[in-house]
Amino acid sequence: MFLKNKLILRLSIGILAMVSVFACKSIEAPVMPEMEPLPETFLDIEDSASIGDISWEEFFNDPNLVSLIETGLENNLDILTALERIEIARSQYRITKGQMYPTLNGMVRYRSGDIRPNLFSGTINGDRNVVNRTENNFIGFQSTWEIDIWGKVKNRKEADYEKFLATGMGRHLVVTDMVAEISRIYYQLLGLDIQLETINRNIEYQEMALELIKIQKMAGRATELAVQQFSAQLLSTKSLSYEKQQEIIETENRLNFIIGRFPQPIERASSLLEIKLPYGMEAGLPSDMLLRRPDIRQAEHELRASNFNVEAARKEFLPSLSLTPYVGLNDESLPAALEMPGGLTIGILGGLTAPIFAQNRIRAGYDQSIASNKIALYNYQKRILDGYQEVSSKLQRVGNLRNIYSLRDEETAVLLNAVSTANELFRGGYATYLEVITAQSRVLEAELDKTNTRIEMFLTVVDLYRALGGGWK
């Protein structure tokens, strides 16, 4: 009997060893696609400091805007949701980390019944109907521990840790987007204030022109058609004023929603024209500054997590070793075990298992982990490419908008002079009322376009700040 058991043990060890060797040779690490290297700089121009490293308190020079951002960081519902996601990821990491340690369970086993005659064979122990104990009673502790001989559990722990870090980067991404969105809406609101002032100022000019044309009509120098044309222009401009007022209300409400409070007036600067651009920047930013972006760093952690998951899936093909030590009191009766010193039992059970008949299931899981790993890699590459083109476009746009604003400022000044000239010529009879109306319409359009350009300048700088990962600490 001893030789037979020894032979079976050797045979089992041999089979497990063959399975291990076969699994190690057949399951090799997958070859992943190579990434294109990042260009050294944007637009092949020398280096300049990254605005992404500047805190938002320093970047934005308007105390009203800083106060709104602080309120948003405390009350924004997306940020609060992101914090709870971090707690979920932290708990999952703790669960996986705990799998590396043995479990300890209290155990009480009590058998109250005796074995009765077998209904099919008639008796137990030959032809005699006897009473027999199935097994002894036991009270004590039992532990179970899977020995991580291949590092499979460790790989899972590292994967969950990278997911936890990726979740943290997700919160940073929410913060960056929220800071940028609050700033964008704030500058849009200031721009709408200027446009409303411009419209109301032009309403005053048009009212003066309407009174003038009425006087001209009374003097016989103008017709009723001219009066109607000036009146129609004035009504159109007044309706535009109400549209801007409604747009201001909706913009204020949208900003209040983002910072997590009910609609109320927004305290803001007196004019967008009195605020300097948050930060000036020339092209030539080192492209590795993109790696500060939360979305890129999040994708990087997700890629690392998928790498660890692939390693863990590879090691599922290998045998696993588990130990089950136990200590307690053991005897035919529980009172006897408590009274007799000999009832103390200490032992350990070991098990070496190999997934011989689960190869298809494990192979499917392994192939799935490889596909997920490639998706994570492609997502990482996509984030980098998207960030590079976004920063490159914003850098060019900042410079072009400065030139556009300068030209539109000159255009507005010329058209304002044209309105004065048209009014003077109309009074002297050298210009028609249509020329006056045209001049007034063009100057209003030019002033609104000039304000829109200044708004775009601020929004583009904010977008560049966000594109470089600014706004979080």
Automatic annotation (TrEMBL):
* Membrane topology summary: Lipid-anchor
| Keyword terms, alphabetized | Lipoprotein, Membrane, Palmitate, Transmembrane, Transmembrane beta strand
GO molecular function, a single term? efflux transmembrane transporter activity
Pfam families hit by this protein: OEP (PF02321)
Task: Write down any Gene Ontology CC term.
Answer: plasma membrane
Spell out the subcellular localization from the entry: Cell membrane
Q: Which family does it belong to?
A: Belongs to the outer membrane factor (OMF) (TC 1.B.17) family.
Q: What is this protein called?
A: RND efflux system, outer membrane lipoprotein, NodT family
Q: Which organism is it from?
A: Cyclobacterium marinum (strain ATCC 25205 / DSM 745 / LMG 13164 / NCIMB 1802) (Flectobacillus marinus)
Organism phylogeny? Bacteria, Pseudomonadati, Bacteroidota, Cytophagia, Cytophagales
